[in-house]
Design goal:
This protein folds into 3 domains: 81 residues, no CATH class; 108 residues, Tetrahydropterin Synthase, Chain A, CATH 3.30.479; 60 residues. The protein has 7 helices and 10 strands. α1 runs antiparallel to α2 and α6 runs antiparallel to α7. GO terms for molecular function: peptidase activity.
Length: 280
């Protein structure tokens, strides 16, 4: 079922007609024309049953004895099919904050994750008649989609291969929004945005994983330092060769490289050693 436009006419014109019929019925009643007055009063009741008011950013789905006739989105007072009933649904943009969920990532590590979902109703017929309670449906499907996305990726990627929940927040948010939209289309809901609001390792492994992160950071830093040290040593030897400052044999080159590597890579300041004699 999809939303359609319901029959409607200007409510102020219908209201003027109601007042005219009401005044006429009173006049006829005073003049003892009871049958015609009763008929006009009945007409007033029938017309009054078709009056409804639509607030801004609201839709009202009109049903007539169980049959969906359409929806009215335009704000104002309207006249529609008499003796019909209407159900309202808000078209305003809303957000839903999920609870902190405890799930396992793709590597089996327990993590805590939560998200905020910004959505709005775009099809009032689907929101009211395709699901039992569209707001509850959004909440349940949001948590289900969040669990599904969280189990597809690792919390962190220590080898820089593929996506991770912590390192690729934009990509994860986009996939979460797509996953939600595919689930919520049946309820006539459009997902405007979905983003993670909380992401952390579960308490029982948080300290161990923090140590792992620190160790990985130290290793990565050491790799950069070693790469830089090797490059600097190569540049120093090449510069000495080009300038002709001193001729170094292979053994002296090895000694020089060793000294430069120690001075650059060491965490403590290097202590100079003065050699007063021959190298050999």
């Amino acid at each position: 079922m999809t939303e359609t436009q319901a029959f409607k006419m200007n409510g102020f014109l219908a209201l003027l007609l109601l007042l005219a019929l009401l005044a006429g019925s009173v006049y006829l009643f005073i003049n003892l024309q009871f049958i015609v007055a009763a008929f006009m009063i009945f007409a007033v009741v029938v017309l009054a049953s078709g009056m409804l008011i639509v607030q801004p950013n609201q839709a009202k789905a009109v049903t007539f004895f169980g049959r969906y006739l359409g929806s009215i989105r335009e704000a104002g007072i309207w006249f529609t099919v008499p003796f019909s009933t209407n159900k309202k649904v808000s078209l305003r943009v809303r957000n839903f904050n999920s609870a902190k969920l405890k799930v396992n990532d793709v590597e089996g590590n327990p993590i805590e994750i939560a998200a905020v979902v910004v959505f709005k109703v775009v099809d009032s017929a689907k929101a009211l008649f395709e699901v039992d309670n569209y707001e509850q449906f959004v909440e349940i499907q949001s948590e289900t989609a969040l669990r599904h996305v969280a189990t597809k990726y690792p919390y962190d990627n220590f080898e820089d291969i593929g996506y991770s929940l912590r390192g690729n927040t934009e990509e994860i948010a986009a996939e979460l929004a797509r996953e939600l939209q595919s689930r919520l289309t049946v309820a006539g809901v459009e997902v405007i945005e979905a983003r993670l609001t909380h992401l952390a390792y579960a308490t029982e492994i948080a300290s161990a994983m923090l140590q792992r992160q620190q160790a990985s950071a130290i290793i990565a830093a050491r790799q950069k330092i070693v790469e830089g040290a090797v490059g600097m040593a190569q540049m120093a030897i090449e510069k000495l060769r080009q300038d002709g400052t001193v001729e170094l044999d292979e053994e002296r080159k090895v000694t020089m490289i060793n000294n430069l590597m120690v001075a650059i890579v060491s965490e403590k300041a290097a202590q100079p050693v003065i050699n007063a004699g021959s190298l050999y």
